[in-house]
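Working notes for the structural subgroup meeting. M.R. asked for a predicted model of this chain before we commit to crystallization trials. I am recording the input and output together here so anyone reviewing the notebook later can reproduce the run.

Input as submitted:
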Amino acid sequence: MSTMSCVGFYDGAEVSWIEVWYDGYPEGVGKVLVDHYTAPDAIRALLRRGELVSLGATPEASERDESGHPYDTVTAPTLEAAFARMGELARGWIEFMYIYYNAQWHYVDVWRDIWEENERPGGPRDHWEWTVRPVKTFFEEKET
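Returned structure, recorded in token form:
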């Protein structure tokens, strides 16, 4: 079974993003992003590959989806809005979303922040209430 994610780059006005079909957890896609995609040019090169089956340490090592679906770009006034727009437009069941902004990777755990809310009193959260976290904090929390 796959864990789908979205990976994007936010420049403060627009977010460009792709879907990655497998290993979308922070220990998978999140770790590869933090370890190998820390320069904007490398991230843009990755996005130009279009939709991916899996994420590799370089854009060339990342397996492309045969559909040839290119990256998407939408306008967004804030980082939270960028996540919301990406989530609205993503096809399929996205479980994690990642955006590079201000020299670090951020993520939203869609399953925890949105879907689990359906089981709680008060119902689901609105997109604007997603919890945006730096990816590095995920690994720092695991170490403690």
